[in-house]
Amino acid sequence: MMKVKQMGFTLVELMIAVAIVGIFASISYPSYQSHIMKAKRSEAQAALVSMATAMEQWRVENNNSYCGSGTDTDCPTLSVSEIFAVQVPINGGTKTYDLSFDAAPMKTFYKLKAIPFFYDSCGNLTLDSTGIKASSTGTNCWE
Hints:
The chain is of the alpha+beta class and 143 residues long. It has helices at residues 11-61, 80-83; strands at 87-88, 97-101, 111-116, 125-128, 133-135.
């Protein structure tokens, strides 16, 4: 009688392969999440810089003032939507950051803010008219 050799995997071999895939996934997923968070943050930073450019254009068109005409005490209320997009991504899609003014712009100064819609270790990102970039957590997230 001739023995027939069976081909295939044993249950032990299959469980070892599943364990190896699980280990790789547990190592790579947090790294992937971190990369996605940094990519979203970079997109928000780019939007803030573009918004600052739009504010400079607004100033040129409005008598060298960030708020249009008037003095700092009687600046009209300026809406972000008059200048730039109000969310990131700026061309639509799933909102990851809200764009706004940190406070009402004055004749010679403004401060822009990006507020995340997910946990971000940097918190809110800000950029002002003097070029100072910061985050609400105090860590340097603009590098």
